[in-house]
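Milestone 3.1: sequence recovery, worked example.
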């Protein structure tokens, strides 16, 4: 076998690997910007490769999502771990909520996964076996420190995020920081001893702004 013939398979394998890397990078950007509704055709176009090339690397969009899943969720899990390592359990809980929601604002696809939108079996298992115990630990630490009201549980942390996520999804284009107003209202409601209310970081929307945000979506 001559040198040219021997190197051709290696070049093809290298090209295939490079195309896969480009497709995953494009998918990462599109999922973050536009969410889970992007198609494999969209990903191929954004990556600058042919649609046929995309389908040779991945059978469908779901395969792309699964390839990115560990990467998408690692940062989110790390936020919970950092919060659990904080010497102040209440500060850790508050920081987790603030940073977790800020991450979801930057990554619409991750926000949809965490909100339970079209979860795969693997993603559902991650929510249940990895994140749910972290949520319980965050809640228990803050409650045992006397900072969190006694009737709040780890499952409440899931639904608090789902509710704030819904506000974020509605307002992210026109008023991306609006969810922070309701996050701070929620934080005050979670305190064992509410005391003086915290200043709200974002003003309320006007009536016209609210109707625009809550109007029909395309």
């Amino acid at each position: 076998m001559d040198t040219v013939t021997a190197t051709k398979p290696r070049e093809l394998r290298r090209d295939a690997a490079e195309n896969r890397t480009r497709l995953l990078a494009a998918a990462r950007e599109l999922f973050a910007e536009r969410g889970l509704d992007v198609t494999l055709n969209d990903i191929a176009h954004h990556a600058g490769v042919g649609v046929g090339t995309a389908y040779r690397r991945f059978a469908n969009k779901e395969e792309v999502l699964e390839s990115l899943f560990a990467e998408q969720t690692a940062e989110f899990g790390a936020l919970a771990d950092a919060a659990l390592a904080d010497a102040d359990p209440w500060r850790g809980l508050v920081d987790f909520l603030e940073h977790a929601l800020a991450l979801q604002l930057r990554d619409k696809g991750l926000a949809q996964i965490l909100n339970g939108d079209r979860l795969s079996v693997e993603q559902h298992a991650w929510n249940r076996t990895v994140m749910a115990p972290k949520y319980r630990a965050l809640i228990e630490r803050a409650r045992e420190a006397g900072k969190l009201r006694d009737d709040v549980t780890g499952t409440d942390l899931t639904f608090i995020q789902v509710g704030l996520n819904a506000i974020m999804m509605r307002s992210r284009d026109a008023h991306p920081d609006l969810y922070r107003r309701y996050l701070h209202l929620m934080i005050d409601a979670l305190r064992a001893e509410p005391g003086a209310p915290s200043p709200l970081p974002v003003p309320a929307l006007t009536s016209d702004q609210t109707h625009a945000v809550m109007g029909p979506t395309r």
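The chain has two domains: 1-59, 65-214. The longest helix spans residues 3-34.
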